[in-house]
Amino acid sequence: MGYLKLEAGKLRELAGWKACATALSNTPLRHCTHRPTSLPARFERGENFTKKNLCIEPQNRVGTARCPYQEFCLFSPAPGCLTGSNTRGASSLAFQPVDKLPITVSMISGAEAGRIGRALESVAAWTSEIVVVLNEEVRDGTEEIAKRHGARVVREKWHGFRDQKNIALGLANEAWVLCLDADEEVSPELRESIRAFFKSDGCKKYAGAYFARKVWFLGRWIKHGDWYPDYSLRLFRRGEGRWGGSPEHDKIELNGPAEKLRGDLHHYTNPTINSYVQKINYFSDIFLQRQLEAKKRWFAAAVVLRSGWRFLRGYVLRLGFLDGFPGFFIAASTAYSTLVRHSRLYEHLHSDAPPCPPRKFH
Asked: What is the distance, to the nearest Å, from the Cα of residue 344 to the centroid of all Cα atoms in its chain?
């Protein structure tokens, strides 16, 4: 079966590199538990490895397609990782530098232990810093997962999406910022587009970059309708962008031009229909508050036309029907959510108590 055992002296020669290393004691490779260790950070802290055997799994044990820690894996072909061909000794390894871009990944999170790992895995290998602002009450293991991927975690009470994201922006140290949600993932194609953006003059000519966001819903990628391409500006030079917009629809306000990049930002926002439907009430509450503050008037014709238009636009004009039944459901539910939001003002204006039943006299 075999092991790869590295002495402390040999380990120190790997400073400045990252590897998928598990501190195990004579554990077979096939039983490696994939607990990643960032060697450079641990060397900087002066940790002593003299009493530990580091079991590093080769490609034929880990596999390369879905290794949960590709960016740390010694034998993974992922860009910027260490690579090797066998487990007979460190001298047989071919080393490549970790090519870090001057980017801070800025993220806010609630209780996202089930999803945040995928988001962090998609950026940890090639960005220089990860900052996660975590809701102060969360205790589901999200913090431990984030730290395991090299993130700096800051606890903060909830201030709303827009303001919470701006708090995270203020903690960034790198020249550029990539804003990412816990339910998102940078696709390999988008990652390479971002690399190309920095290798070219793009990072000098532009203040930011935007790209399409693609949603996984009801067992398939949604590629048409109102949900795609859903262009999002998420990458920008620090100091040139800030979260603005409304509380329910925040967006980056950029000082300068932005370039369009190829590749999709994967979005796993609604794991079930129930989770999607629950958001309708949440956002309708916020929408009603905005209408009341703006002293909006209610018109029946506008509500009917808006709702019908949203279905027609999403399902027919934007080819939502090409996504099968999920495309129909999205168009119909979008029309329904529009109807609910714009009917809340009518409900508020007609919230009189029901008449009392007539008294019966004997």
From this structure: 32
Question: Domain spans of the chain?
Answer: 8-92, 101-267, 273-349
With 0.85 as the threshold, say if the pTM is over it: no
- Tokens 């959510």 locate to 337
Summarised one tens digit per residue, pLDDT across range 14-37 is 333 333 333 333 333 333 333 344
Q: In this prediction, what percent of the chain has a pLDDT beyond 70?
A: 72
Q: Check: CB of residue 58 under 8 Å from CB of residue 84.
A: yes
Query: Looking at residue 99, what is its pLDDT?
Result: 79
The DSSP bridge partners found for residue 37 are: 19
The pLDDT, as a whole number, for residue 351 is 81
Q: Which helix (H) or strand (E) holds 108?
A: strand 101-109
d(CA 301, CA 223): 31
Distance CA 128, CA 131 (A): 10
- For the cut 60, the answer to whether the pLDDT of residue 231 exceeds it is yes
Q: In 63-133, which ranges are continuous DSSP H helix?
A: 116-121
- Closest C-alpha among 221, 218, 240 to residue 229: 221
For 356, the token pair is: 């009392």
Which own/partner contact pairs does 80-86 have at CB distance under 8 Å and 24+ positions apart? 80/125, 80/126, 81/18, 81/125, 82/14, 82/17, 82/18, 82/19, 84/58, 86/58
Three-state DSSP class for residue 125: coil
Measured between alpha carbons, how far is 236 from 210 in angstroms, rounded to an integer? 9
Q: Which fold has domain 101-267?
A: Spore Coat Polysaccharide Biosynthesis Protein SpsA; Chain A (3.90.550)
Per-residue model confidence as pLDDT tens digits over 270-327: 889 999 999 999 889 989 998 998 899 999 999 999 999 999 999 999 999 999 999 9
Left if phi > 0, otherwise alpha if psi is -120 to 50, otherwise beta: which for 135? beta
**Residue 197: which residues within 8 A CB-CB, separation 6 or more?**
203, 209, 235, 259, 261
Q: Between the CA of residue 208 and those of 22, 167, 168, 233, what are the distances in Å?
A: 38, 19, 18, 7
Q: Strand, helix or coil at 102?
A: strand
Q: What residues contact residue 191 under an 8 Å CB cut-off, 6+ apart?
A: 122, 123, 126, 263
